[in-house]
Amino acid sequence: MQSSGGVSVQPVKLIKSGNSIGNLRIWGLVIFLIILQGAPANAEETQSPATENPKISRQQSELNQLRERVKQLEDKQALEDLQPEFGVNLGAYGDVNFATPNRDSSHSTFWLDSLDLYSTANYGPRLNFLAELQAEVEDSNEGNFDVERLWVGYTFNDLFIVRAGRQHTALGYWNNTYHHAKQHYLTVNRPFFLEFEDEGGVFPMHNVGMELTGSLNNSGNRWTYDLNIGNGHFIDPATGYLVPVQVSNNYGTSLVALRISNRPAGDPGLTLGAFGSAERVAVQAGDIVDERLYGVDLSYVEGSTEVITEFFRPVNKEKSAYAYYAQLGYRVLPDLTPYARYEALFTNSSDPYFSELLNGVTRRQIIAGVRYDLDPLRSALKLQYRHDAKEGSKIYNLVEAQWCFGF
């Protein structure tokens, strides 16, 4: 016999006797066992969601799993917020070069220029950091590691951003747009007078101090300002290089530079800029030269066309000089861009500033070449011709090639 509770109950053989009371007792016991087997064991089982509705039980289980997953994600995010971000968005840039005989090499040569490591980090909407580190191979085949840019910044609003550290000086378009990664250059290298200080450049391309920057939209016109306040430079008498003061300012140098630029509403590819700087530069024998620099820049980068030109006017109380370049590039195929650039620096041999610099002499260069993008963001091949005429020195006509990359 099968009970309603699903438990087998052995049949009870009734005793055939006249004792009806005994039979009733037996039947009563059987009925009691059936009722007891079918009833819940306790009150909690009676109220169990699984007994009442399996669907509710499944939903409750899924909700518990979701809560556990959210907790795991919150714990992971809290741990990541405590970890440094350098290297998370790390970019590496490099280039391999070839050139026929030139001012730096009497024979055709291949060389590695540098490995540039670049990283930024943001903690919330206001606090941000930047680091740009460069590993170079010197002419002596020895390695050198430089901190090119390193700053911490805080954004109060679009109009007022403060940074402290080592930055690029706010002089012109090129120095604020193109940094150390040659993958971003249309040409093989920078205009020669805008080379970085340790490459023989003649203007203050870096500074250590404070930077204030911000932008404002006015009827569609975007105005931007960049203000640098920091240490100045000194001229190393042993090398003739301009050197930024980074640690101990025992020279009494200082630098203030300002650039204001505008991007008109009607032509977003056009940028117009004006800039200037006042610097106390330490020259040989500890003398100080008060050097002023004024200039303007114009750039148009839109679609297939790139036009950039800048004019620089350095002045001190005794002499003045000037420098400029004009660069044009036009993409004729999706991956192929021919370009040309003329660049010139005109100085005076008795200038107390330029006369102390290794490359502070009159010089002109004509460059023509082509860039082929293997990948517009990752790698490019460049081939160019250079006519290099430097006052008091041999004229060079050379061919240069470069394979630059970033990853």
Explain what you see:
The chain is mainly beta and 407 residues long. The chain folds into two domains: 48 residues, no CATH class; 316 residues, Porin (Beta Barrel), CATH 2.40.160. Helices cover 15% and strands 47% of the residues. The chain has five helices and 18 strands. The strands form two sheets. It has a 16-stranded antiparallel beta barrel. β6 and β7 form a beta hairpin. The longest helix has 29 residues. The N and C termini lie far apart (80 Å). The N terminus is likely disordered.
Largest beta sheet: what is the strand line-up?
1-2-3-4-5-6-7-10-11-12-13-14-15-16-17-18
Low-confidence stretches: 1-21, 39-50
- Protein structure class: mainly beta
How many beta strands in the DSSP annotation? 18
**CATH structural architecture of the largest domain:** Beta Barrel
- How far is the first residue's CA from the last residue's CA? 80 Å
Main β-sheet description: 16 strands, antiparallel, barrel
Secondary structure tally, helices: 5
User: C-alpha Rg, in Å?
Assistant: 39 Å
Shape: globular
Question: What is the number of domains?
Answer: 2
Run of helices and strands: HHHHEEEEEHEEEEEEEEEEEEE
CATH class of the largest domain: Mainly Beta
The CATH H-level superfamily of the largest domain is Porin
Q: What is this structure's SSE topology?
A:
Layout: H1 20-38, H2 43-46, H3 49-52, H4 54-82, E1 91-99, E2 109-123, E3 127-137, E4 143-157, E5 160-168, H5 174-177, E6 206-218, E7 221-230, E8 233-235, E9 242-244, E10 254-263, E11 270-282, E12 288-302, E13 305-315, E14 322-330, E15 336-346, E16 363-375, E17 379-390, E18 396-406
Antiparallel strand pairs: 1-2, 1-18, 2-3, 3-4, 4-5, 5-6, 6-7, 7-10, 8-9, 10-11, 11-12, 12-13, 13-14, 14-15, 15-16, 16-17, 17-18
